[in-house]
């Protein structure tokens, strides 16, 4: 009797045991890791979908990281802008107090406050995060704004705002304080007012109006412009007046109104009617000269400071500073082009022609790029530091001629500058742009959170396992493996003697 070999079947059973053990190990790994496979190949036809989903999740993570970096910079910019808004509020409040309540003493205090505020503004505009200066446009590796001390006082051979304002004031006022006007008497009964040269400085005659009886008024005409008042036909009546209007260096207008009176001496802005027209003309000339000098020490001085400040703060890497062609400055007839070698350039950051917001951008979504760049020389920001610096540069003390009126003229102009003129960018506009950028980033982040949740659910369905199902499979597999091992063991224990039995 022959006995068939069991070697072949034995090998198959052993291989089956190995396969069952491998399946058990894989199921154990699945229930411990929660993943169907530790390789994409193990996912079968779903591996392409899995790779795509993970790529999308990685992209979302990258967009959120970019948005977080931009948000940090935007938050710092908004903090700086909020502080600048407080400086504006405090400065306007101090100017209102000085103009309407405190007088010259208040004006002096405002100047001191303005100097501290200028220090604060310079520091705010040099805000940095991670070594990156955020108010310099594309230029982020160096402070974009000079120190308050350099802006006001200069730096060695380079002139600061104080010197620039002083030179411009001399050019505008002239040596006699008449604002570059000549007031003469061509005849005993006539007064002539003429600009002294064809130059951009001093008073510019805009118009004249009169209701003086017996007076003939002509002009202003010619180049340089001039006007005449002739009283040769007789004296005016008390209460009648002459008004001369001037255009100031900063583009504003001011006027002098003189009223005829029989009082002797006359009051402020009055002239005494004399016995003869020639006497009245002499009195009119004296009153007009005094009124023009007073206007020169108040409105013209304030307008001159504002214009000098405009020219100083207009300078950057692309625009050389405008300086008075002197010395001497009180007889100057033209400006000259300055340079960074002789004038402090207050803003040294990027001065490109592209929009400021586009100097720093963040791709926070496949189709959304957020611009959050800022330049300190933008109109809304420049107006703040310029007007505060101008206020800090004008010294008004108890010995300043017509100090109260000068303070009022200056504060009126600077308040307008701080408020922002119609059609010009304001500080609030920059703040709004930053807030809009932040809102866009936050909205993108919220979308990403929703997308991430959905994609993770899809990915879990593809790569994840059901613990209950895997547990049942493990129990079933353990039962099969135990049975197979018992059968195999029994087969290996068989012998010819057992078989014969």
Report on this model:
This protein folds into three domains: 70 residues; 187 residues, f41 fragment of flagellin, N-terminal domain (Up-down Bundle), CATH 1.20.1330; 130 residues, no CATH class. 52% of the residues lie in helices and 13% in strands. It has ten helices and 14 strands. The two termini are 14 Å apart.
SSE order and pairing:
Layout: H1 7-33, H2 47-125, E1 128-129, E2 132-133, H3 148-153, H4 161-173, E3 181-184, E4 190-195, E5 204-210, E6 216-221, E7 226-230, E8 241-247, E9 253-261, E10 270-272, H5 277-313, E11 322-324, E12 335-337, E13 361-365, E14 368-371, H6 379-393, H7 403-419, H8 427-463, H9 467-492, H10 496-500
Parallel strand pairs: 9-10
Antiparallel strand pairs: 1-2, 3-4, 4-7, 5-8, 6-7, 8-9, 11-12, 13-14
Helix pairs in contact: 1-9, 2-6, 2-7, 2-8, 4-5, 5-6, 5-7, 6-7, 6-8
How many β-strand stretches? 14
Q: For the largest beta sheet, what order do the strands appear in spatially?
A: 3-4-7-6
What is the straight-line distance between the termini? Answer: 14 Å
Q: Residue share in helices? A: 40-55%
CATH class of the largest domain: Mainly Alpha
Mean pLDDT: 86
Question: Mind describing the biggest β-sheet?
Answer: 4 strands, antiparallel
Task: Please tally the helical runs, counting DSSP H or I stretches of 4 or more residues.
Answer: 10
Structural class estimated from helices and strands: alpha+beta
What's the CATH topology name of the largest domain? Answer: f41 fragment of flagellin, N-terminal domain
CATH superfamily of the largest domain: f41 fragment of flagellin, N-terminal domain
Number of domains: 3
